């Protein structure tokens, strides 16, 4: 966690969250099944958005999310420092 090196940035997208929080990058595209976008956003003071299942295509994501039932839970979304950065 860039704000406290004794703490984790959280989740499998924690590296992306730490990079956004420390201003290495302005925005990160993260994937979320069980909190991998939302937890690092919470821990690092960011804004992360998990879109509604099926709203964003997972086509081409590596690794693949598997069968179509899991695809609805596995979503790709943005992580940014400010809420207005998430606006299209």
Q: Can I get a quick summary?
A:
This protein is of the alpha+beta class and 88 residues long.
Walk me through what this model shows:
22% of the residues lie in helices and 16% in strands. It has three helices and three strands. Strands 1-3-2 form a three-stranded antiparallel β-sheet. It is globular. The model has no long low-confidence stretch (mean pLDDT 89).
- For the CA atoms, what is the radius of gyration? 13 Å
Placed side by side, the strands forming the largest sheet appear as 1-3-2
Structural class: alpha+beta
Order of helices and strands: HEHEHE
Question: Layout of helices and strands, plus pairs?
Answer:
Layout: H1 14-21, E1 27-32, H2 38-44, E2 47-48, H3 68-71, E3 75-80
Antiparallel strand pairs: 1-3, 2-3
Helix pairs in contact: 1-2
Name the features:
alpha+beta, 3-stranded antiparallel beta sheet, 22% helix
